[in-house]
Amino acid sequence: MPNDELMPIGAFAQRSRLTSSALRFYADSGLLPPAEVDPVSGYRYYSTDQVARASTLRQLRELAMPLVAVEAVLGSGADEASRLLDEHVAKVVGDVAAVQQKAAVIKSVLGTAPGLPVAAVKGPVLADAVEQVLTAAAHEPGMPTVGGLRIEVGHEAVTLTATDRYRLATRTLVPAEPPSHTWAGTVDGDELRSAVAASRRSPLVRLEAVSNGIWFRVAGREDRHCRLLPGEYPDYRLMLASLGEVSTRATVSKDLLLRALEGHPGERTGLHVADDGVSVVSAVDGHPDIPLPATVAGQALQIWFDLTTLYPAVSTAIGPDVLLDLRGHDQPVTIRSADRGDLTTLAMPVKPDHCA
Fold it and tell me: Can you give the chain as a three-state secondary structure string?
């Protein structure tokens, strides 16, 4: 290879953003041997063709990928490399979760105050409720609490609530035993999903509050800890209390409504509610409306939603039919099961002129 196409190790280090010592290590390990080595001086030279491989190697090592896995990725095609990356990320995420749980156990042993038993609930009921309600949570910079789930334990019920400010979901659970204390806290949503997944096959889960979180204790299984999120939770009770009077009520098949939403194009969808039923209206010109049989009482109206708000609000409803309580084209809509009212969702509409 002509010398003018080669770079000394220092220049190649700048191009690849790897240190000279790292390049020597990767050369000795066989991952990135130099293009040429001067037999007299021992100087190492690299070609411009090696920059891409060096950059990829650096990025893989930044992911804490071991050398054996890095070698496998660099030697694989795109599909296999993608699979190996996914496998590595899954392992890292699992390791992080395990470390968090071990840290929580250590904290409990280091002299923290004993936990406060607050409630006992049925495992599968809790797991289902968390999955349903957490669909309304979201990760937003500067607002960590909207990425969590609000747990409130009263004397007669356990209430789970999540909101991303465009949608709010709340479900009330009947405890398996009368709560011994009242308690409220906002729990990390990702940790909560992992914690309750293990409780799905457990008849009873006991909730025990500590200063920095809450324990989910299950007989015969490993206890799981979830952190509390800092900051005040949005005052959703004030929003619920300030809702206007219902002007229109419609009961419609959940499956038919979901199918209609899935089949309509565009990011926004309208609902036209009248005496003859509910129609799913498209924001795309020329696309036909989809009429749905429904039981309707009250005033006729048309209201628009972002599909990402309306669809999950309907899909998480319990039972074959959903009940829509409407208050006008610019007011939140309450969506709940026609035969079970313990899961309630509020969906915020968008302005009609946004749908042109």
Answer: CCHHHEEEHHHHHHHHCCCHHHHHHHHHCCCCCCCEECCCCCCEEEEHHHHHHHHHHHHHHHCCCCHHHHHHHHCCCHHHHHHHHHHHHHHHHHHHHHHHHHHHHHHHHCCCCCCEEEEEECHHHHHHHHHHHHCCCCCECCEHHHHEEEEEECCCCEEEEEECCCEEEEEEECCCECCCCCEEEEEEHHHHHHHHHCCCCCCCEEEEEECCEEEEECCCCCCEEEEECCCCCCCHHHHHHCCCCCCEEEEEEHHHHHHHHHHCCCCEEEEEEECCEEEEEECCCCCCCEEECEEEEECCEEEEEEHHHHHHHHHCCCCCEEEEEECCCCCCEEEEECCCCCEEEEECCECHHHHC
